């Protein structure tokens, strides 16, 4: 994405990105860790190929965008317990917006 002047990156506002949510401001205001996640859209989200099916024979290939979203919703708590959890508060302090 290219940036012109002091405005937001071009394309990010029209298409949506983590930059739209002001995560750093939210983290400072509420003293929280903010986790954002990306997921595949379009052909990349629904791509079905034999090579991809070999990686996940039980679930088949396709609809990887939804799989990305499910992993993102489950992931912050697991990541928290492995890295930050022993030193800080509960993973329940994380916001979990829907996609």
From TrEMBL:
This is Carboxylesterase type B domain-containing protein. InterPro entries: AB_hydrolase_fold, CarbesteraseB. Residues 1-29, 57-99 are annotated as: Disordered. It comes from the Bacteria. Residues 11-72 form the Carboxylesterase type B domain. The lineage of its organism: Bacteria, Bacillati, Actinomycetota, Actinomycetes, Kitasatosporales. Pfam families: COesterase.
